[in-house]
Amino acid sequence: MSGPTVLLTDAAPAKAASTRRSALLGGGGRALLGLLLPLLLAGAWEIAVASGFATGRLLPPPSRIGAALWSLAASGELWTHVAATLIRVGLGFAFGAGAGILFGALTATLPPLRWLLDPSLQALRAVPSLAWVPLFILWFGILETPKVALIAVGVFFPVYVGVAGAIASVDRKLVEVGRIFRLSPLALARRILLPAVLPATLTALRTGLGLGFLFVVAAELMGASEGLGYLLVDGQQFSKPDQILAAIISFAVVGKLADTALVTLTSPLVRWQDTARETL
Q: What is the H or E stretch that residue 18 is in?
């Protein structure tokens, strides 16, 4: 009796400490803590430029970058570029993630299909993103179709690998237990396979979304006149480092907001998980 009593006694303070940390670092507290490092770096660089320690010619201080962002936002130009980029990433993510989930599930559950398709897909995964640009321009022209197709390619591979790996790593004993209880194939997929693969699938979707923002820069090199990637190229051509950094910061903010939205929308699907992260 003494052993379990000691364990419960030791677990109570740990749980209480975790509860106190969660209360102290609520949603707002965690957001402020996450902003601490970039604000400190920005403040240090602003002071360095203002004091003459650095010139700020190639790396402008935050005040100049903020002024460039304000100018772009006040003119409405920034929102036009953000909207164009988000539409491209959204469409590319939808097509790429859908195809990645479908092909990942098929190749993981059907061995002949895996032997047929997986070697070719793994070889194509190693092709650099820019290598697809001239081919997509020849196929689809220079309008929106090649841009969305390039982003879809970037999203497809991490989702495909994540889903196929998640299904392949399902514990065989779980499937055997389901068969012992005589679950139908549909019930087996719904009650055992889906919960087992869902966490890794959602992680793969987050990775694919991040690569979608990575590929959109290459996509917007294909004759785009709108988008944050266009802002980067325009700033480079006209030697405007403040505009380049403003576009980079916009990419960071928009990408973080998109990732947060994806996590918020999908977190109810894995609310049943009891992970160690909740107690750390």
A: helix 2-24
Question: HEC profile for 193-243?
Answer: HHHHHHHHHHHHHHHHHHHHHHHHHHHCCCCCCCCHHHHHHHHHHCCCHHH
Query: Which pLDDT score, from 0 to 100, does residue 2 have?
Result: 46
DSSP string of 102-146, one letter each residue: HHHHHHHH-HHHHHHHHHHHHHHHTS-GGGHHHHHHHHHTTSHHH
Distance CA 268, CA 80 (A): 32
Q: Quick one: fold of 83-223+258-267? A: MetI-like fold (1.10.3720)
Lowest mean pLDDT among 168-172, 212-216, 226-230, 263-267: 168-172
Name 54's Cβ contacts closer than 8 Å, sequence gap at least 6. Answer: 45, 48
CA 217 to chain centroid: 15
- Residue 31 pLDDT more than 70? no
Question: Residues 21, 24, 30, 36: is their CA dihedral positive or negative?
Answer: negative
Tell me how far apart the alpha carbons of residues 23 and 74 are, in angstroms, rounded to a whole number.
Answer: 38
- The per-residue pLDDT for 174 is 75
3-state helix, strand, coil in the chain (%, to 5): 85, 0, 15
SS3 string, 42-57, reads HHHHHHHHHCCCCCCC
Rg (CA), the chain: 24
User: How do the domains of the chain map onto residue ranges?
Assistant: 83-223+258-267
Q: How far apart are CA 66 and CA 245, in angstroms?
A: 10
d(CA 88, CA 118): 27
Residue 238: CB atoms within 10 Å: 9
Q: Please name the amino acid found at residue 218.
A: A
